[in-house]
Write a structure and sequence with these properties.
The complex is a heterodimer of chains A (255) and B (419).
Chain A (H helix, E strand, L loop, with lengths): L1 H7 L12 H36 L5 H14 L2 H13 L23 H34 L3 H8 L4 H32 L1 H6 L5 H10 L3 H29 L7
Chain B lengths: L18 H4 L4 H11 L1 H18 L1 H8 L12 E4 L2 E4 L1 E3 L8 E3 L20 H37 L1 H16 L2 H15 L3 E3 L2 E3 L5 H10 L1 H16 L2 H8 L4 H37 L11 H10 L6 H28 L1 H18 L3 H11 L34 H8 L2
Antiparallel strand pairs in B: 1-2, 3-4, 5-6
Classes of the chains: A mainly alpha (255), B mainly alpha (419).
Amino acid sequence: MMKKIFISRDLVSYSNQGQRVIPEVTAAAPATLSLVFGAAVIWVVMAILMGVGAAVLRGTVLDPLLMIIALIGISMPVFWVGEVVNLVPQSRLHHSFLFSWVPPLGYTPFTQNPVLWFKGLVFPWITLSIMYIGFYARVLRANLLEIQNEDYIRTARAKGLTERRVLFRHTLRTSMITFVSLFGLDFGVLVGGGALLTEVVFAIHGVGFLTYQSLTGLDLPVIMTTVIYGAFFIVLANTLVDIAYAGLDPRVRPA
Amino acid sequence: MAIALTESAEPPGQAPDLEPEISGRSPWALAGRRLWRNRIAMAALVLFLLIIAVSFAAPLYAHDIAKVNAFANNLSGTTIIHGHRVPLLQQGGGLLKLGETPIGPTWDISNYFLGADQQGRDVMARVLYGGRSSLEIGIGSAVFCCVIATVIALIAGYFGGIIDAALSRLMDIIWAFPVYLLAISISTVLLTTSNGLSIGPLHLVATSLWLPTLIIAFIYLPYVYRPIRGHVLSVSEKEFVQAGIAQGASDVRLIFSDILPNIVSVVIVLLPLMIATTILTESALSFLSIGVQPPNASWGTIISDGQDLLYTRPWVAIAPGIMIVLTVLALNVLGDGVRDALDPRAKLRADAVDRARALRHHGARVCDLLQDARHRPGQADRGSQPEPADPGRDTPPVRSRPPVPRPVRPDDEEDLHQP
């Protein structure tokens, strides 16, 4: 195996004889990337809206309501959500005008048909992002409320800044530090194959699906490759988080 | 972190009469009272206990009410619906009119309430039995995980030095794997390729519920270990531990009677949240058919069975999912309630924000700031302080609620009880 790694620079799958491993992973990567990027956009936007909304509306009925929705989002197993989501557009409602545009399960490459790519990924995006929306909204709200007690927020108000400016330039910006570091790590894990359950439920042949297949088939070369691939993205995400940190929090720059 | 769910629990007017009670009660009794008053958390606790009771009554339901065997094939079975005898598996149902379709929900509690699955087994009975396995694995692995992690954290945090370094690096190695990847790898090896796990005289067959329990407990060790070790480190530095050392107390005594009681609250806060996490993990592993093995059922395996029937008999997959959501939601709410009860500081911070809002609303911000400047000169322009300023000190003229006495952290209170 060492010889294969260092001389021919690739491994051959055990179960799929003749199939080289690296092309297999690079073929699977675009599906995972499309899935995770879209989901990330949805979850960041929704989590900020919900978290800030709940923090601003504190004391009204909407705040506990939003947080209960977030908690339900965290409590749902992602593969089950995927199945229930599949049930809506793929089953009886498939022929109604509302869902007739949804293509059958599977992944269409962007280069082949961008419209079909988008249509096929809408529901996987939503499914994958639900748990993260709940989690991030809760973290963000707690963070915002904690920061509102800091003295520099009081100072900002004392200077006569508008509430909106205090919220967006002072409170939200500080809580973005936690948000960004969490986001970076989760994103890295997902790109590296962590979206396994969503990929299995929606039959998207991405890296997570490949990992799952190789693990159940004990296809050692593929397992090695996907684990190294996943680890690479986790390390990369950590690095990017550290760089983003410096951008958001000037205090860490000299260090 | 304060959460919204506890807000309605304490009416604002009740706060001042807490004061006289603080003197004579143990911190645990106080935390218990706070939790008892938190109606939403208590409702979650009741729901969780109800789910446990119903799930553990599965044999009773199967034997006495539904009169079915939830684990045996019943392909040629029949049942009576509206006076007609119908087979459990009907030929040519569904959209394609192919194959066999089990009967759907009858909504009759004693007769295939949720219908049958592809082998003619009562889905309702299976959901209850599945709940029993899921809860056993979830609670079992969370308890295991917390106990083992606490012991390791106590040893690492107390002895420090090379022991701490070795144990912490060991935990870092587990931590470095993505959770599901590690769980799937271990489960694949232990459940599908070999015949279970053998450690010395102990042998676990692949169908044993102990295997998923131990696997899940193992993968979450570092998640529990890290926060507990941090607390052990900080408690070890406290004066009462120094006093114990000066008195010549043994290591075992210091660990178990001085340090352990001060970190138990951290473990208790983590426990319900860990049960929620482990139940979700168990269901995911079972869904991928590398968790609970047949003939046992769990919510995850039933959802996985239901995947084939999704478009014809969706309830097979939906029902266990609803049970998972309810259980995990109840545990999350309960966990938040327990945390608020044991860490009143989080609640206090939220109250401070409430007061600030009320002040702003009444346009009394300037008064507040003036008073602030008078009481604490030179502090108004400081940047980030480690501790949020105590809002109970400056009492502004316009106030929406009476001032809350500053609650003491359970840790601090417990310090007072130490020798």
